[in-house]
Amino acid sequence: MPAPKNTFKAALAAGQPQVGCWVGMADAYAAEIAATARFGWLLVDGEHAPNDLRSVLEQVRVIEGSGSAPVARLPVGETWMIKQYLDAGVQNILVPMVESGAQARDLVRAVRYPPHGVRGVGSALARASRFGAIPDYLATADDQICLLVQVENRAGLEALDDILATDVDGVFVGPSDLAADMGHIGNAGHPEVVEAVLDAITRIVAAGKAAGILTLDPEMQRKCLDLGVTFLATNIDVTLFAKAVRDAADASLRLVSDRVAECSPV
Question: Residue 263 domain-assigned?
Fold first, then answer.
């Protein structure tokens, strides 16, 4: 029996756009709610959300039971950390702040078993192999791991061709960090940033790699899809919840204010 087929990776390889949502509430119950929304993929964030490996795994588990594919973003692209995520059964990983072809090659080696890589052989202990119940896991796992890397500063853009020459499955462009690095912090919609992002996406697609981005701007979403982006995140659970609960509070406060105004003497 081989490693589980990675349908998310297969869809990206086939050029089928996958729309997703960022999951940053660091809670399995919240992730399970997000998993009912029918997004193609959900990104469990280990970089900017207060997650550790155990909480990421809890969220990946509940997402696996839905129709959405779980993707996990590591806090940093360390080989030992990648090994732990993979052994926990995370097949789709996103690594932030990749700035060179050499770094991308190291990441490719980190997700593969020897002799093609350096992933530690401990599958008998691992959830990824169903604790040894998948007899062909070691021989088949490499093909089912999807490695996505983030290019999110000027150094990464300058090295983009070298990164694309490696065996990464896809490149995710990070507009927010790129905007900050370009001197436009907090303004990912600045024309200079947008131009750089769209140029990067064009180059990624031309190289035959999956291109990805997170943007809440519907116009930018359409532009990216038109250019061939195949993993597009259109929203964030934290911002969705924050807006909804604040809007609800505002409506309730207006209700009370209106009642007070009605009862006040003229």
Answer: no
